[in-house]
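Archive transcription. Copying these from loose printouts into the bound notebook so they stop getting lost. Printout 1 of 2:
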Amino acid sequence: MFPFLVLVIKLILFDCFPHRMESLPDKIVQCILSHVKNAKDVALCTCVSRRWKDSLPYIKSLYFPRNSFDNHTGIDHPDGIVFKMISSIFQLEELVVYSPFSSTGLASWLLLAGSSLKHLELRMDNLAEYQTCVESPSKLDCISAAKNLESLKLWGVLMINSPMWDTFPKLQNLEIIGARLEDPALCAALQACPNLKNLLLLGCEGTRSVSIALPHLEKCKLDFYGLGDCSLTVTCPKIELLETHGCSWIRVPETNFLKKLSISNNAGRVYMVDFGKLAALDFLSIRGIQWCWDAISKMLQWASEVKHLYMKVEFTGDFDTLLEPFPEIDIVDFFNSHPKLQEFDIHGAMFAAFCHRNSLKNMESGFVIPCLEKVAVTIRSPLNAEQKMSTLQSLLKYGKSIKSMVLRTALHLSNHSNADDFYDDICTFQRMNSEIVRIE
C-alpha cells in the first residue's frame, strides 16, 4: 500500500479530520479502499461514514488472516460472514483465506465471485482429514467455479483423488505448498492448467513418477519429500528456470531457453540425468549426499557455457556402490571446458578431486582462467594438504580476474594430526592475499 494512502486511512479511522470526509471525491475514496485488503480493516472502514460504506462494493481484494474468527461470538457462522462481505462487492478480483472454512462455504463464495476472481489463495488445512476424500464437492472441486483465475495458491492440500476441474484457460501461476499427492491426481490438476507460466510444488509428498508437459511453462520449482527416489520428466519447450529436490531420475529433453538449473537430493541418490543442449545455461547448482559419477560428469559436460556453478555433492559411485570419493579431475581440462565461468562455489569432495599432482603438472605457461571472478571453497579435511594449498595458489595465479576468494573450513575442529599445521598454512595464505582472500 502506498505510504500516503496508509496515512489517509489512519487519519480517517482515528477521526482526525472526519469533517473533511464529505469533501473527498468518490474516486479518491474508492481508490483508498481499493488498497485495503484485510477483512477486519474493511469492516472498520465501513463504520467510518456512510460514504465509506457505500464505497465497499468497489473493493478489489479481501484477505482473511488465520486468526480472523478466533474471538468470534456472534450468531453468524464464519462462512456466512465471509459470504456477506463477498456479496457486497461488485467485482472481487483477489480472495485470500487463511482462516478455517468448509467446502460448502467455499462453494458459496465462488458461486458469487468466481467469474471475476483473478487471484485465489486458500489455506486448505485438510491433509489429515479423511472426509475430504469422500465429501462432495471437495474443497478442490469447488475451485472449478473460478474459471478466470490467473493465479492460484493452495496451502496444506490433500490431493488423493483427481480434482474435478474444467480448464483454467487464464491460469498462469500455480503454487501448491505442503501437500500429499497421488501421481494421477497431480497429473489431472496440471492438465487443467494448459497455459501455466509458473509452477511451484513445495513440500509435497507421495509422488513417485511426475511428468510435466506444459507448452508455456517458464519457471518450475519442485520440492518432493520422501525417500528421494522420485522420477521426473519435464517437457516444456520454453522452460527458463528449473529447481528440483528429491528426484533420482530426471529427464528434460527441451532446454533451449533454460538459464537457471538447480538439482538437489538429500534423502536419496541422483542416478540419472538426461538433458538437452544447455547452451543458454547461466547458473547450475548440484547438491546432495551422493550422485552417480555418470550424472555429475554429464551435467558438467552439458553445462560448458555456465557462468555460475555451485557444487555440493559429498560422495559419488554407481548403482552398486555407496559413498565413493570423487575420481581425479584435471583442473586444466575443467576450466578449459568452462571458459565463461565467473563464480564457482565448490565443496569438499569436488575440491579434493582437483587436488592431485597430475592435475597441477599439466599446467602450461599459457594456461589462464579467463573469466573467473569469485571463488568459494569449502575444505573439510587436512588430507593431501600440500596439494590443496598448491591448488589454491594456482587458482589465484591463473585466475587473472579473481576479485574474491572465500575459504570455509572446520579444520580447527579436526582431531587429525596435520589439521593445525594446515590451518596455519591457510591463514598465512590469507594474510599474503588479504585483498582477495578471506576465511569464514
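Printout 2 of 2:
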Amino acid sequence: MAVKLQGFEFWKTTLRGARYVVAPMVDQSELAWRLLSRRHGAELCYTPMLHAQVFVRDANYRKDNLYSEVCPEDRPLITQFCANDPEVFVQACLLAQDYCDAIDLNLGCPQMIAKRGHYGVFLQDEWELLEKMVKLANEKISVPITCKIRVFNKMEETVQYAQMLEKAGCQLLTVHGRTKDQKGPATGIASWEHIKAVRNAVNIPVFANGNIQHLSDVEQCMEETGVQGVMSAEGNLHNPALFEGHSPPVWEMAEEYLEVVSQYPPCTLSYVRAHLFKLWHHTLQIHKDLREELAKVKNLQGLTEVSRQLRLRCQEEITNGGEEAGQVVGLPFPHWICQPYVRPVPKAPVANSNGTEVKAGGHKRALSQEDSDGASDALSKNKQKKKARNPHKNFCPEQKPKYIKCEQCGNPKGNQCVFNLCRGCCKKKAHKEVADCPSHGLRFKTKAEKQKTERQEEEEEEEGKSRGLQEEEDGGLLNGTPSPPTDPPQRTDCGLRHGLTGT
C-alpha cells in the first residue's frame, strides 16, 4: 500500500500545487463543467456535495454522481461529502477513495436543507463529533481528508476551530470568509482577515473562498492572506474563464460547454439549463421571451437552439449599435460578455405603522380575497403561482400533513407502507422477505407465486405427455402387436442402383 501523503507534500505532489480551484457546487460542478473550467485555467476541481448516507446505501447514486464520471482529464479531483455520523462518513469515503485524490467534509453549507439534515455549517459547534469524524476517516481511508468551513464571528474561535480540525487529521483547509448567517440577500463581504488568521495559525495548506470575481481578486487575496490557493464558486459559474483573466463573449463559453456535454454524456438536463441561465444572466434580463423559452424546452437540442438565438440577437445588436451596443447601467461590460453577478445590497429596515422595524421589501404579496379563501396570511409570489395552478392547494402550516419518519433511514415513510418504511428501505426488505407492499407498488410475493404456479403447470403438462406416451406403448404390447414405426422406411443406396423400391 502506498504511503499517504500529508499536508504540504500532498498539496505539492498530488494536487500539483493547485492555486486556482473550482468549488464544490450542488448540481453545478458536474464533470462537463469541471472539464470546461480546467480548459480555462482551473487547476483543481471538487465534485458537487454528495450525501454520505445516500452514497452508502444507493448503488445508482454512486454510479450517477461519481463512478460514471471517471475521466483521465478530470484530475486532480476532490470528492465532497456532507455527513453527521462518523461510521457512515467512513463507509462513504471507502467507496469513493479509488475515484478521487482526496475526500472533503462539507462544514460550510448554510442552506435550510443543511439545517434540516443537520450537516454543513450547522455542525460547527459540535467539535467533539467533528474531531471524531475527521480522525476516524484519516485513520481508515487511503487518501487525505480535507475540510471546507465557514468562519465564526470571533476570530479567535475561528482559529481554534481550524486548529482542532488540523489536529484531528485534516490535511488541507478551505476557509470561506463568511459566517453561517451570511447567505442570500445578507451575503455581504467575506472576511479575508479571518482567513489570514487561520493561515498563520495552522501548518497545513489553506484555500481562501469569498469575494472572487476577477483574476485580480485572486491575486490580491493570495497576497493579503498568504493562502496556497483560491476557490471560486459564483465567479466561476458566470465566467468559466475567470482563472485565465479573460472575459469572453457568453456564447463562446455556452457553445463550448454544450459541446463538452454532448461529448461526455449523460448530463442531467437541469444542470445544463442552470448553467445557461447563469452564463446568459444579464442578457436574459433584456430578452425575456427567450428566458421563458429556456425554462420550457425539454431536451439538449432545445437548450442549444435557445442559446443560438441569444447569440444571434447579441450579434445583431453589435452590428446595429456599434461601440455603444450592449451597455447596461450597472454593468462594466456589454451584457453579452462573461462577468460577475453582484447581488443587490439589502435595503435598510423601515418602520411599519406600529413603529416596529421590518425588512424593506420583505412583505409577502397578498392574494385577493377570493384567491385567499378569506385567509389573512399573505402568500409569496412563488406560492401564488402554485395556487394558480392548483386552487385547492393549502399552505396553512397547521393543516400541512405531518410526515412520519422511516424506521431505518429517517426519510419520510410511505403513508400506507406495510413495513412503515420509505420506498428505498421497503424495497430492500420486501425483496429480502419476498413480500408485497401495494402502497409502493412492490409485488415480490405475487411474482414469486405466479412463477411457482407457472412452473407447476409446466411440470404437470410434461408429466401428462409422458404418461400418455407410456399408455400408448403399454396398450400396443398388450394387444400382441408392436406399435407401427413413426417414420417410413428409407431407401438405401443399393435399392436406388438396382431399381428396388425398398418394400
